[in-house]
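sorry for the late reply, my laptop died twice this morning and i had to redo everyting from scratch. anyway the thing you sent over, i finally got around to it. pasting the sequence first so we're on the same page, its 253 residues, then the predicted structure underneath. double check i copied it right bc i was rushing
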Amino acid sequence: MKLCARCRTWYTYEREVSFSPHLVRLFPRQDHGVRVRDFRFRTNAGAQVQHRRDLYDNWIARCFLPEPGARLRFEADLELEVAERNPFDFLVDADATRFPFAYRDVERAALVPFLEVEAADRVEGFPGWDSPDAGAGGDTVSVLVEMNRALHRAIRYERREHGEPHPPAETLRRGAGSCRDTARLHAAILRTRGIAARLVSGFLFETGSGPRVAEGALHLWTEAYLPGAGWVGFDPTNGVLCDHLYVPTAVGA
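ok and here's the structure:
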């Protein structure tokens, strides 16, 4: 399947300003199902751009902008070849099929950044998932699927283009949030339950099977690490698992 995207981000200022270095993460993360056929990145004239990999193995563009200006632009055009994928096409190791489960020592050591949750961000329950013991003893995948759906029902989507993700407690109190607010809340819930989770940003391409929030735009979702299955994508904003139309550009704790 061929997918194409154009990303345009412009910042306009009242007067000329000086720019600090910028890190831009728009290059798709390639795997066996995603191949980048073409990628073109542009920013202000005169900028020096260095392409590097960061701590999480994301491709980044380090942009040094020596000239002051009243506008800053980042533009990307990409063409991808994507293999259609069933999001449930994975197997969990036998000792992780019941919830909750314990990671092996070698897994836990590598997953420390994705298991840590600050005390203020711990979430024991939310509307539709009230008990700290909810899901205990159940099939791991079924529990996580229902948790994702319950969070989708509990948090109303609202578009918010600027600002950091809200703290989990604020998103719960308001019962509404942007995709980044809901994803941060979901990651906090998973980590509170002992499931390693990371945040993922990328493109959500349009589908003909019905509208999804944030289709055709940059989006944020969550991945949970399941032994045997690896990182599995969950989109609590839409209440679904992530298929081939979710193309990540960056991951982080």
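The chain has two domains: 2-82, 94-252.
thats about all i looked at so far, will dig more tmrw
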